[in-house]
Amino acid sequence: MNAIMTAANAWLTDFFDTETKKEIEHLIATxxxxxxxxxxxxxxxxxxxxxxVMGVGTNxxxxxxxxxxxxxxxxxxxxxxxxxxxxxxxxxxxxxxxDTLARTxxxxxxxxxxxxxxxxxxxxxxxxxxxxxxxxxxxxxxxTASHNPPEYNGxxxxxxxxxxxxxxxxxxxxxxxxxxxxxxxxxxxxxERIELIDKEVDEAFIEASVxxxxxxxxxxxxxxxxxxSLHGTSITAIPAVLKxxxxxxxxxxxxxxxxxxxxxxxxxxxxxxxxxxxMAIKKAEEIGADMVVGTDPDSxxxxxxxxxxxxxxxxxxxNQAMILMTxxxxxxxxxxxxxxxxxxATTIVSTPMMEVMANAYGVxxxxxxxxxxxxxxxxxxxPQSKFLGGGEESFGYMVGDFVRDKDAVTATLLACEIATQAxxxxxxxxxxxxxxxxxYGFYKEYLVSLTKxxxxxxxEIKQMLxxxxxxxxxxxxxxxxxxxxDYNTSVIKNVLTGEEIPIDIPKSNVLxxxxxxxxxxxxxxxxxxPKVKFxxxxxxxxxxxxxxxxxxxxxxxxxxxILSELKLD
Length: 569
What we know:
Layout lengths: L1 H8 L8 H13 L1 H8 L5 E2 L2 E5 L9 H18 L6 E6 L5 H14 L3 E5 L5 H10 L4 E5 L8 E8 L9 H10 L15 E4 L1 H15 L11 E4 L9 H7 L5 E3 L25 H10 L3 E5 L6 E6 L5 E4 L1 H19 L5 E6 L5 H9 L2 E5 L3 H10 L4 E7 L3 E4 L8 H17 L4 H12 L1 E10 L2 H17 L4 E2 L2 E8 L4 E4 L5 E3 L8 E5 L4 E6 L5 E10 L7 H18 L4
Parallel strand pairs: 3-4, 3-5, 4-7, 8-9, 8-10, 13-14, 13-15
Antiparallel strand pairs: 1-2, 2-6, 5-6, 10-11, 11-12, 15-16, 17-24, 18-19, 19-20, 19-22, 20-21, 22-23, 23-24
């Protein structure tokens, strides 16, 4: 507790504002547990940057923690680009304090002689990624906590390529930040170095989204879409993109169209949660719509619902959407002719079906750790290769490389193109997915996500993962474990032969079991939330589309057995 008090007392100096000092004094006097949670560590960069609960303290998002990170980033930019006229672009989402925190970040950069392009109002994360290269900036920042609860905010850093920072840059930036005291931050901004931006960049981004996501599908006038922004930023982009691509039958859920950091109509603004799309699905049933699309607050994730074989609206998960989008892009490239340098990509906890499909088309398949920053890094590391598309199970997808992060704006248009063309062909989005299962195998995934908050929660997550590793699973649903992939030690071990294979990607706290029948169980902590996640992937042969319901039920039963065996049910 002495270390906690020392850290807290450091925030009682004259450098900190009166309200901050009053709140800390109140915590010292009345709530030592809350004080401990706010000061027991410093905010860290995870898979999505720096993200956490807002409030005073070193373990909170506030003007001081963001100011220190910005000062450190500014110092780093000067070291990496000595003598250059540095430029950064800043965007922010609908969350509480995002606009004021964005202004604070802009002021710190400008105080350090760095030119700042600041969006005049909230904008999507994909537009920020696009804007970095469009404006020829050295870095970009977006203030967002993605789909986290209302009390959260965050700070994602993008580099000159428009992708998120990756090793070694992230470590070097963190080291630069850690050299600083809060008193080293220059908060006295230079307004002449801050330029507000909006329509010109909006137009360029919308045009690029349409160019990359529009494939002139037939029957757009006959295709009904229900769209919800879930109170977030996508309202600034997706309706305009759909309209320009020729979609005239789009119903926007008015109750969720107004940006609002309280997210009043949903339990969580996360399209991974079925409840988030319930209002849109209800409207779709009322008007007989073909598709529902909903996006998270910063518009990098999208949830999709389409009509199933029984004509009912059904949400497709991130793996399913990724498969169909990638298949479509592969088909388009096939029509244009493969050049031999194309690749698709996904992450280690996403469906193995992506690799099967890549092999079928004869294109390169790349896999990365969880987080789109790693897919962005692939594009930067292999400039001679052509990235067609790729995604991850957590409802994110990227079309081409004009945006270097998951992009719900262009992915929404692509999904609509696929579904519209399928309908015009007498099929459907859902039926096309089943046809993929017939061609490449029926892969079905399931996610278990357990929330564990606070200091005790962090310890519990650590222990769960330790137990998962130290008490290895011998078999899963009757199939012997063949491989154990340990990304902490960078080794894949064949437990049947004893052979060990090195893993050639960065270390990460992920453990994966794979059985002889191809079932996979992965466990990892979230990099941006107080959660531990278990990913289950099963598969079976689907000889003909008519057998879909039967095989689907069998895979559901198998998943139920696995959940019971792992005590996750």
